Every structure is written in C-alpha cells, then in structure tokens.
Amino acid sequence: PPFIITVDGPAASGKGTIANRLGALYGVPVLDSGLLYRAVGVLTRRAGKDLDSEQDAGGVAMTLTAAMLDDPEFRTRGAGECASRVAVHSAVRLALRELQLAFARTPQGAVLDGRDMGTVICPEAPAKLYVTATPEVRAERRWKQLKGQGEEVSLADVLEDIRRRDERDGSRADSPMVAAADAVLLDTTEMTIEQATDAARRTVEA
Ligand code: C5P
Q1: Is this complex's ipTM strictly greater than 0.90?
Q2: For ligand 1, atom 12, which residue shows the shortest CA distance?
Q3: Ligand 1 mean position, distance from CA 34 (Å)
Q4: Are the CB atoms for 108 and 29 separated by under 8 Å?
Q5: Is any atom of ligand 1 closer than 6 Å to the C-beta of 37?
Q6: Bridge-partner residues for 128, per DSSP?
Q7: I want to staple 195 with a disulfide (CB 3.0 to 4.6 A). Which of 56, 61, 65, 191 is the partner?
C-alpha cells in the first residue's frame, strides 16, 4: 500500500510544519487541505457570493482546481475565517473530496494535513497523528506568523479567532474536527518544532 501519513488537528497546532518536515524527510508530497477551504472561502467572497450559502460556496468549490491555489491572500487571517465558514457545507466538502483523493492516491504516497484526513479522507492510512496545543500557545504561534506576513493584529484578537474556529470546526455536522480512533495524539504545547517533528517521526516509524 502507498505510504500515507495523516496529520490532523486545530489551527496553529504545528501540524503544517510537522507535515512539511515529514514530507521532506520521506520524500513524499504534502497536501495542505486547509488551503483548499481557504481558496473556496476567498473566491466565494471575491465573487460577491454568500459564504454561509451552501449553494454559493459549493458552486465555487466545484470549479476549484490545483492551478488556482497559488495566491498569497489564501494565507491571511481573513481567509482562515472564510475557510471555516464554507467548510461547514457538505456540498463544499464533497466537491473538495475528489481533489484530495486524487492527491492521496498515487503510488508514491503522501502526507495529508488537515482536520479530517484520518477520519474521512484517508481512514485506511497506516500512520495517523492528531496534533494539539493549548489555544493560548497556538494563538501566539499564529500571531507571530501573521506579523511576519505583515498583518497588524493583536494577540487577543488572534486568540478569539482560534477559539471561534475551534468551536465551528469541532461542532459542524459534517466531518467535525476530531481525532481518529487510531491516531496518535501529539501535544506540542511545550515542544519546539524540532522536538515535535522528532516525536512525529518516532510515531510514524514505530
Ligand atoms: O488549516 P487551516 O487553518 O488552513 O484551515 C482553514 C480552515 O479550513 C479550518 O478552520 C477548517 O474550517 C477548514 N478545514 C477543514 N477540513 C480540512 C482542512 C481545513 O474543514 N481538512
């Protein structure tokens, strides 16, 4: 079977960094599935459509292709909020499913980074991680990252974003953010990136 590692968890838990490092280590491509939801959110808003309308956002999701993902606006704070609003719609999740499966189902394998990689997209993956950290630590990480991108925002506002997104992602009816039963939990609250990557590697190789 292909070599697939799923890395799920809430925003700024460290999962993106861990996924990228594992991908580099094992020489397999990394899917940032959050980027797909971010793209749908931003493109829906840009078209003047309603983020909270399943039909509007689902329509945009059906037209999304990999070639459309290279836009720095998708990395902004506003894009994260738009993403979590469109991510509640089943039509959006279904439309993005094919793109994700196409990425995962190659002979070379993949590292899949997201919220439901181990539960919905690739439950058969042999290695699953669920990465967490306290909301406070995650907010600080995201705040530094946004500052590095030139976004002016207070730490308190970023913490509020994170809490709101956790709540929305965890309580939606379709594919709520939850650890797969067979995922290994990795709490990175007190870990450096190196320590977290190392712990992830040990889990995968165990
Ligand atoms: O990981 P990232 O912060 O880029 O994800 C943005 C948003 O996209 C999340 O808050 C979540 O609502 C949604 N998402 C999702 N399923 C995924 C990846 C992201 O619902 N697999």
Answers
A1: yes
A2: 84
A3: 4
A4: yes
A5: yes
A6: 6
A7: 191
Q: Whose structure tokens read 């630590």?
A: 137
For a ligand 1 pocket test, name from 115, 145, 158, 165 the mutation site with the most ligand atoms within 8 angstroms of its C-beta. 115
pLDDT at 145 over 80: yes
| Cβ atoms of residues 37 and 84 within 8 Å | yes
pLDDT at 1: 63
User: pLDDT band at 202, cuts 50/70/90?
Assistant: very high
In this prediction, residue 196 has a pLDDT band, given cuts at 50, 70 and 90, of very high
Of 17, 73, 84, the residue with max ligand 1 atoms within 8 A of its CB, to mutate for a pocket test, comes to 84
Separation between Cα atoms, residue 39 and residue 204, nearest integer Å: 30
Query: Would you say the CB of residue 100 lies under 6 angstroms from ligand 1?
Result: no
Which residue matches tokens 């991108």? 149
Which domains does the chain possess? 4-205 (3.40.50.300)
Q: How many whole angstroms separate alpha carbon 16 and alpha carbon 14? A: 6
Q: What's the rounded Cα separation, in Å, for the pair 201 and 206?
A: 8
- Given CA atoms 165, 167, 173, 178 in this order, what sign does their dihedral have? positive
- Ligand 1, residue 169: give the atom nearest the CA: 12
Tell whether ligand 1 has an atom less than 6 A from the beta carbon of residue 87.
Answer: yes
What distance lies between CA 100 and its chain's CA centroid? 12
